[in-house]
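Worked problem 6 (solution included).
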Amino acid sequence: MIALEQEINETIKIWPKISKTISTIHTQVHYKRAIRLLDSLIDSVCEKPDPVKESLIDTLGTLIKDYEDRNIPEPKGDPIGSLKFLMDEHGLKQSHLKEIGSQGIVSEILNGKRKLNVRQIKALSQRFHVSPVVFIEEDKLNYEDHKE
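Solution. The predicted structure is:
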């Protein structure tokens, strides 16, 4: 019990500094700052794995998702429109979506010349913290309803 009390007291001493980076997000400004920090951390960990940064990524991701769940409606409609919406919302360019392929592939997807595959849908779902359904064409979702 004493150790726990010590941990709490130590945390309280450094909380004013830490809470500027890690705390519940209440404003659009704080949200955009958290997104920039998360993107920077992800880039850093991609170059050189770091368990401390990975833990911070998990925590920031949770805080960002909480804010988005409370304040940003999940985009509905076509997968490409949803992807464009999310890219705009996060200030991303085609070159930022390396997890779904080269810039040429991303361009083909955004221009409707190529469909998203399962791997890409999963990657986008994880990146933007949205349901994979956001990136699945509506007619594919209704397939089971029409099958007899």
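Discussion: Residues 25-72 form one domain.
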